Amino acid sequence: MSTVSSRISGTADFEAGLGDIVSLCKRRGFVFPSSEIYGGLASCWDYGPLGVELKQNLRNLWWEFMVTTRDDVVGMDGSILMHPETWVASGHVDSFHDPMVDCRVCKKRFRLDQLENPDQKNCPECGGKESLTEPRNFNLMLATQLGPLDETGMKVYLRPETCQSIYLDFKQIQQVMRLRVPFGIAQVGKSFRNEIVTKAFIFRSREFEQMEMQFFIREAEGPKWFEYWKGERWRFYTEILGVSADKLRWRAHEQLAHYARAAEDIEYEFPFGWKELEGVHNRGDFDLSQHAGHSGKNLSYRDDLSGEVFVPHVIETSAGLDRSILTVLCDAYDKDIADGEERTVLRFHPRVAPVQVGVFPLMKKPPLVEVARRLELELRQRERMRAFYDETGQIGRRYRRQDEVGTPYCITIDFETLEKNDATVRDRDTMLQERVGLDRMAEYLRNKIYRET
Ligand code: ATP
């Protein structure tokens, strides 16, 4: 959960440097504004065919890294609407807000912590003298109503973070799965925040997805597990997603929330500056104790072997899926010169790329088309690779189209293929071409795609 002190400050121009990426995303079907035919809805975004593949890949890679490849973390999928007392206990009803100021002249609204100077009275947008109002608190939770009638309906919130259902279900899951501390529970899902500052593409939206994991431990082991999870999360971005390590850094929170023992963010150097990508926190026993107090239920843990009874402490790793997508997009985005022309290229790691292999017949003629189609289907269906078939335009144009969406390998079936049963594989980054036998094509690609970073 964000606290005012942990939030970024300074008037960042979020869109600076993002323009090309935003337009590529729209042009090539990654991400575009939601409800655009009605003029769009501020800070809500739709993922198109390539964007949804990218999102799926990142979500799956996170899940594999955090859950399926480990024996000490299990998953869950909680509901978005939860009992409203949850948010009283968690502190969100009282303190999940941003102080904001309004300009009386141009009517723009600003987050106080994003003004250059918190005592500022002149509007940074229109320059209005003494035009800013006193700060007012603005709760970031979105509310709705359950039940048929306005008067009798129950006010509930769309969850502003996914982790609370992990705390609420902690004891059930621990008992039914017979888990022993230390263990973790992970969840991926939608969260909603009525953000004030929304000009930041998918970096900050009002509806977004989080990937969170709470790791339940003994108090004394807090520092050890905190360091361990910092290491793992760093490894995820650099080794699994292939993000450049020199564009990532740790930033310790200057002021800790009253219950927190330690809190650090992984920041990425976006075109608009260093910004938070994920938080790793030692939250002590705050959350379980709060929910035990508010619900009247005993949320302590009893160790079967040692007989100890205690309320576990928690190390949390809290990442944004949409922010991870923006990170890999910014990290991959590049321009260079190919055949004397400028080309735009997304240098995604092959594991992350929405299309992993393009398959082209050199010409739209039998039997080249049939051979290419057969190979594409084999790669898609038998190898479960994300393959794409394209037979239109010159081969150079087809390469360029795939470069722009980050396809790491393209295979061209030509007349030599018919004689020698091999084909040209062209590498997106080196642009080198290599002949590879069709009977070992799948293995060749597998080795490249699943290689270590
Ligand atoms: P920020 O200071 O950028 O608002 P936060 O400190 O409020 O972030 P947390 O509450 O710690 O963020 O949430 C964990 C993660 O969820 C963040 O690191 C980020 O990746 C993601 N996240 C939070 N708010 C948003 C949002 N409005 N849009 C997209 N992702 C978000």
Enumerate the spans where pLDDT stays under 50 for 5 or more consecutive residues: 1-12
Query: Average pLDDT value?
Result: 92
CATH superfamily of the largest domain: Bira Bifunctional Protein, Domain 2
Order of strands side by side in the largest beta sheet?
Answer: 3-9-10-16-13-12-11
Give helix % range.
Answer: 25-40%
Number of helices: 12
Number of domains: 3
Question: In a nutshell, what does this entry contain?
Answer:
This protein is α+β, with helices and mostly antiparallel strands and 453 residues long. It has 12 helices and 23 strands.
Structure explained in plain terms:
This protein is globular. The chain folds into 3 domains: 3-84 and 145-330, Bira Bifunctional Protein, Domain 2 (BirA Bifunctional Protein, domain 2); 97-139, no CATH class; 355-450, 3-Layer(aba) Sandwich (Rossmann fold), CATH 3.40.50. β19 (357-361), α9 (368-382) and β20 (387-389) form a beta-alpha-beta unit. It is of the alpha+beta class. The strands form 7 sheets. The chain has a 7-stranded mixed sheet, sandwiched between helices. A 5-stranded mixed sheet has the order 20-19-21-22-23, sandwiched between helices. A 3-stranded antiparallel sheet has the order 5-4-6. It contains 12 helices and 23 strands. α2 (49-68) crosses α8. Bound molecules: adenosine-5'-triphosphate. Residues 1-2, 6-8, 161, 193, 195, 204-205, 208, 210, 276-279, 318-320, 322-323 line the site of adenosine-5'-triphosphate.
